[in-house]
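Continuing the batch. This is chain 6 of the set; chains 1 through 5 are on the previous pages. Same settings as before, nothing changed between runs. Recording input and output for traceability.
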Amino acid sequence: MHRRNRIRVENLSRLLSYILGHRPDEFGLVPDREGFIGYKELLQAIHEEPGWGYVRLGDIREVLMGESRSLFDFDENRIRALERRWQIDVGSPEKMPPILYVAVRKRAHAHTMEKGLASERNVVLSADSEFAMRLGRRRDNKPVLLEVQTSAARQKNCSFLVFGNLYLTREIPPECLSGPPVEVEAVARKVERPNEESLIRKQEFMPGSFLLDAVRDPAPHRALRGKKGKGWKEEARKMRKRRSR
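Output for chain 6:
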């Protein structure tokens, strides 16, 4: 392995060890109960760091094939550090910020304000609005920032867990959320295209115009002008026979 490539792999190994083993919350990541984080989530967080936008799944696999392999446990979809120095506080915190923030998809804004937030895993909240927007941009380029009234949420029996700089909960009732007004999308009206028959009828009644119609022609004999009767061929044959005699 070339020296430059070896340094690149070693630096990525250190970054992975820090994220997975020390401060996943600093990168907006919440491991599952076994400490694993999905590769997709991990790469999204890494790409937000200056100078690390080049990292791909192949680069992580290169780390896992090298000398740092013994530091991690992994499978096809996820990875964790074998030595983890973080933990999620099980007990609900005594003191909470009065307002927490969460950024939701723009298309889910109206539904969230009506139904609230809920997740089988965790709704991830932050006391920093900018950091909440950073997390929201992982799902939507233009997320909508919402405020969570923590006192009202607790009165609704919502429990919170602390994970580093993040706050976790399973649900937030809609009455505990506030944010910008929901945009009402204008419903495009369908303009019925008139068919050909209706256009003709409309043209018939336009002042100063008239429509030619063979059926309505007051002199129907004109329609037969220039046309030959059905027996003209037989008559022509008889005439030729008479001349040949």
